[in-house]
Amino acid sequence: MRIAVVGTGYVGLVSGTCLAETGVTVTCVDVDEAKIRKLNEGGIPIYEPGLAELVAKNRADKRLFFTTSLKNALVDADAVFIAVGTPPDEDGSADLRYVLGVAREVGELIEDYIVVVTKSTVPVGTNGKVKAAIRAELDRRGVQVEFDVASNPEFLKEGDAVSDFMKPDRVVIGVETDRAKKVMERLYHAFILNNTPILFMDIPSAEMTKYAANSMLATRISFMNDIANLCEIVGANVDSVKRGIGSDSRIGTKFLNAGCGYGGSCFPKDVKALIKTGDDSGYAMGVLKAVEEVNERQKSVLFQKIYKHYQGHLQGKHFGLWGLSFKPATDDMREAPSLVLIEQLLTAGATVTAFDPVAMNECRRKIGDRIQYATQMYEALEGADAMIVVTEWQEFKVPKFTYIEKALKEKVIFDGRNIYNPEQMREFGYVYYGIGR
Predict the structure, then answer these.
(1) Catalytic-residue membership of 260
(2) Which is the most buried residue in 186, 366, 368, 391, by most CB within 10 A?
(3) DSSP symbol at 200
(4) Phi then psi for 18, rounded to 5 degrees?
(5) What is the pTM of this model?
(6) Sorting pLDDT into bands at 50, 70 and 90, what band is 92?
């Protein structure tokens, strides 16, 4: 089987590479010549554990190819995946210009039956627009070529995307015809053999499933952050509350960690887009509006603790910051809480030296040299008035506290991810601030 994947960003590159690993011949397409050149030379444009090795393996096995030519990629293809970006507009809606641009180009080029699969995260109704765009180009050409559209949303966690794709909880596929369903069944044959649930449904339901899933997870995070803030006020411990409710089989333990807010490429964008879809449909998504409000407030919770500890006197204070990416195992800093905190500290007159295992170049790209960057984690703490943890990277969880003590001016830690034990911190003589503890 042969497919084309348009877009070599996070979704497209992971999806295309993993499908190649199952035996499908995949050609990934991108308009960025430098990115394609890098991929053809053996590099990859994103950081994702295990992906570089899988790309190299499938390139060597002649199942994975990269090109700037969609025309060439469509030759003998059974399906073409649209996996380009859908960044949020100012009003929160998903920007569909790239998705529809690919659809028009597909309409300009196809000669034989093909299934056009939307992998990008798109609002309900987008596949109808994709279908109309392709049909308009075929009409303009004056040709009759049969095609189908399908929705196949991704459910990948950054930092664990390869495993998520190869061992998914489920595969969601929206189709309109039996012919399209048969093509998608062939494509996912390896997953069917592994007894992965393949959930076929109508296209609008598939589109909605992606937004509903991410919005539910974002809701759990914001709910626990709200509970954590209340725990601090009334003298409860959010860790105990988490154990108490997480042991309920109806609730479970995942996405119940309190912290300094969520970020990334999915949750903030998808929550905004679903709110906008509701507004456009005349229905106010009250719960999700609260989820978004709580998360934006939570990104300031560390600064508020720092401000209170120093009684508002932050001018001239210096902080060592561990973690810049929005979560571990990625260099993604989109909507990262670290960016909010850094801006607040700098505005208050403080200085910052940061360390992150992989995201420092990305931080330089976003904010330049407004802060200092350390080459290793303990170096970031040298001469700092306090230490701040924003991202729960594995190497931060069991540090050498003797090194921390020697580096800091004062033994003060602001833990935005609750990765340290408060009692142990007190035993070590630290002034310790967590979230909801």
Answers:
(1) no
(2) 391
(3) E
(4) -70, -35
(5) 0.90
(6) confident
DSSP state of 381: G
Is the pLDDT at 90 greater than 80? The verdict is no
| CA–centroid distance for 341 within its chain | 20
Which residue segment(s) compose the domain that 397 sits in?
299-433
The residues, ordered by sequence, that sit 6+ positions from 171 with a Cβ below 8 Å of its Cβ are 152, 188, 191, 196, 197, 198, 199
Q: Which of 18, 231, 266, 363 is catalytic?
A: 266
Q: How far apart are CA 234 and CA 65, in angstroms?
A: 58
Per-residue pLDDT, 156: 92
- Pair (73, 184) in one structural domain: yes
Q: How many Å separate Cα 60 from the centre of its chain? A: 29
Q: Which residues contact 68 (CB under 8 A, 6 or more apart)?
A: 29, 30, 31, 32, 33, 36
Tens of pLDDT, residue by residue over 283-325, are 999 999 999 999 999 999 999 999 999 999 999 999 999 999 9
CA distance 433 to 418: 9
φ and ψ of 199, to 5 deg: -100, 100
Round to whole Å and give the CA distance between 52 and 46.
9
Ranges of H-type helices in 311-390: 337-347, 360-367
The pLDDT assigned to 58 comes to: 97
Q: Is the pLDDT of residue 148 over 90?
A: yes
- Domain with residue 113: its CATH number is 3.40.50.720
Structure tokens at 149: 């559209």
Residue that is last in its domain, among 136, 169, 201: 201
Q: Domain check: are 374 and 326 in the same one?
A: yes
Note the helical H segments in 348-421: 360-367, 394-397, 401-407
Return d(Cα 165, Cα 14) in angstroms, integer. 8
DSSP 173: E
Mind listing the pLDDT tens digit for each residue in 32-58?
999 999 999 999 998 899 999 999 999
Q: How confident is the prediction for the chain on average, in pLDDT? A: 96
Q: How many domains does the structure of the chain reveal?
A: 3
pLDDT at 34: 95
Residue 206: inside a domain:
no
Indicate whether 239 belongs to any domain. Answer: yes
What's the token pair of residue 227? 């509970």
Same domain? For 164 and 270 the reply is no
Identify the band that residue 268 occupies on the pLDDT scale cut at 50, 70 and 90: very high
